[in-house]
């Protein structure tokens, strides 16, 4: 096989919702090659293949000459090419990795005699709950990824403890309706669907989020999640998104709270403001989105062990009252870019609160 081959004699067809990286890895597996080696073939270079990260491979795959070459070699239709190379939104995970997946989606693939594949949604920073199955995404076990195989092979999946747990307690059937039993997961699905719609240019629900355009909703959400994930105190401490109650961590199927963050590393040493795209772990991103829902939504069902008030202003006061002064000043500064009418109708005066608690 060489770069002068007009077309590949065998190439897996991409699934409608499959990511470019997942499809490319499956193509490499068909020829017994690593993604890095196949990438050299496509790029028509004789350079020795380096050990490339998933992020690096994805970056090269988005280069126009590489994309054109791949479309020719794989005989991709226009619709297949458009699906594999969607327009980037700046809300993708910066690491470009599959840090998480839905085991039930993979089980559905196996039940339909398909090789499990990576969904585009799993690489979106705002996506932390499988909307088809109503469960939180689980962290992928990188330690058991076989060499020179697709990252979504059944071998890797069956070695994952969380996948095995799903295999033990769930059948192969596809759920006709999302089975969201947790109020917390329901809120996450709600804000994530609103985010997806906003990224498509659809304005959010007026009665739930207030009078915001799609772009304004994304700005407010981006500021709130960044505020939740950023450490403002001068010593090692925990952000607002990590201050979760026991019920929130349990019903959120593992949302990472203070105790969980003390037991492991997820980039807590990150310097400066930290956005959703900077955090690979979906449990941490889910905590930030849960906090954003509590602060933004007019209707929010709090956990049974949290007293946060019925209105969004009550919840804002409960969350911000004991926050570090630096964090309140940062958020107040960001609010200057929000619509004035929206701030007056839906938010407390953070700067006044800062003076009261000074």
Name a few traits of the molecule.
single chain; 358 residues; mainly alpha; two-stranded antiparallel sheet; two-stranded antiparallel ribbon; 4 strands
Number of strands: 4
Main-sheet strand order equals 1-4
Average pLDDT, all residues: 81
In percent, how helical is the residue content? Answer: 40-55%
Query: Would you identify the regions where 5 or more consecutive residues have pLDDT less than 50?
Result: 144-150, 168-178
With helices defined by DSSP (H or I, 4 residues minimum), what is the helix count? 18
Count of structural domains: 2
What's the order of the H and E elements?
A: HHHHHEHEEEHHHHHHHHHHHH
Strand content: under 5%
Structure description:
There is one protein chain. The chain is mostly helical and 358 residues long. It has 18 helices and four strands. 39% of the residues are buried. The chain folds into two domains: 20-169, no CATH class; 183-356, no CATH class. The protein has helices at 20-30, 35-42, 54-61, 64-73, 78-84, 103-111, 154-158, 161-169, 183-199, 206-209, 214-229, 246-251, 258-262, 282-296, 312-320, 325-335, 340-346, 350-356, and strands spanning 100-101, 129-130, 135-136, 138-139. Strands 1-4 form a two-stranded antiparallel ribbon. A two-stranded antiparallel sheet has the order 2-3. A hairpin with a 4-residue loop joins strand 2 and strand 3 (135-136).
